[in-house]
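Dear Dr. H.,

I hope your travels went smoothly. While you were away I took the liberty of generating a structure for the chain from your last submission, since the lab meeting agenda had it listed for discussion. I wanted you to have the full record in hand beforehand rather than looking at slides cold. The sequence, exactly as received, is reproduced here:
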Amino acid sequence: MLHQLGTALRQTRTIELRLDWLANDREISRFLRRLKPRPGTTLIATCRRREAGGKYSGSIASQLAHLTEAIAAGCRWYDLEIETVRQCPPGLLDVMLASGRQLTSAHFFRHLPKNLPRVAKELAAGRSDAIKIAARCDSLRDARKIFAVAQHRKNIVAVPMGDVALPARLLAVREGSAFTYAPVENATAPGQVSLDDAKRIYRLDRVTRRTQIYGVIGDPVGHSLSPVMQNAAFQARRLDAMYLPFLVQDLRDFVEAIGPFGIRGFSVTIPHKERILGFLDGCDPLAAKIGAVNTVVVRAGGKLYGYNTDYIGILRSLESRIPLRGSRVLIVGAGGAARAVAFALAQSGAIPCVTARRPQRAKALARAAGGEAIVRERIRGEFFDAIVNATPVGMHPRIGASPLAARELNCRLVFDTIYRPQNTKLLQFAARRGIETVSGVEMFVAQGAAQFEIWTGERAPVETMRHAVLRALAAEEKTAGKFRRGSQSRPAR
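The corresponding predicted structure, in token form, is as follows:
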């Protein structure tokens, strides 16, 4: 904990000390004796009991004794859960903790309480200097209810919890919360973003009500490097904007949050590229022809207008490597990404051949793009100028999967639209056979640059975006390599 405190102090001046995460009473006292707060630092001491979702198993008397120690050691604030407040005799807190400032908190790990104003009123009673409401949110609608309370109160910390609420956690400081939580190493609740990412990627310390909000919607979305890429671009162009990952299971819930959250535009990934069409007020003709949208702009009056920039990424990735006109290209998949590939190739004069797990979808896409449907059994006996994987097969975390076997790669070039991992199993198969490969990073950066230009009207810093993505991928691969080596070195049990 002392090491993590030192790390945190290099990035922020407001730090919560979760004393209940230490092993026992003795460890807590040892830690506090060694605590030496720096001038200008605000430390919040928390010793949350198990009854309130913490790890401390001691009595209330011991809990208050540790908070008293923490105040004497230099903590200006202490977080005291409502469960303890309810059981304390009147005046006890004034006697024991009078020199500290009290953040009275309530945590709801299973669901959002029905009457948030009543919760806030109870928290604010007594000697509270500030209040905190942390609640599980299974929708952005739930998160907006917490923010509504925050916007009508001073000195409140609003904490939406859960994976769906992750972007709302980051938006909390923009929506009236005094601060948001970001762990140094150990996450203490679902949906947290690390302190390093909060500062380096999202620049949360600079967010204001004027900050423009963009994002990516998908399910899953945690794997996406779009936030790394687009936030690097905003920073390079000195734009007051932030790009967030939205785990969206209910499209209507997200669309209803666009206005309240002030979202200016967003990317669309699996499985919403086709579904989003039903929520748009208008669409670029090419995107309408493709039947899939990966980019949405929020225009005046909240009108949603869709584009497809995937085809730009596809063309830039392929046309510099093979002459597309007259080329026969096999597309694996028939979803939104595959439709963009098929129409991009058809526009360039190539012959799109489509194979998919569902033959009827393959036939429909081939017919729409003026190409040919190929059943899986025929692939091994035919030759293609290029093969393009437009499915999520092989994407992190299922990195050991491939949409095609090595013996089915009869072509000059293999292009995988997946960029995470950069070197997929499919590309490994191709390289072993001496076939030229193209990583999805090329398409990803190109389509992202086009999105940036549509949203901002400024030229995209392409090299900055590419560097941010490659750096993130390299860091992931390095971490994964260390994990694999560590696992191999462990003795069998």
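Two observations you may find useful: The chain has three domains: 2-191, 226-308+446-478, 313-438. DSSP finds 19 helices and 18 strands in the chain.

With kind regards,
E. W.
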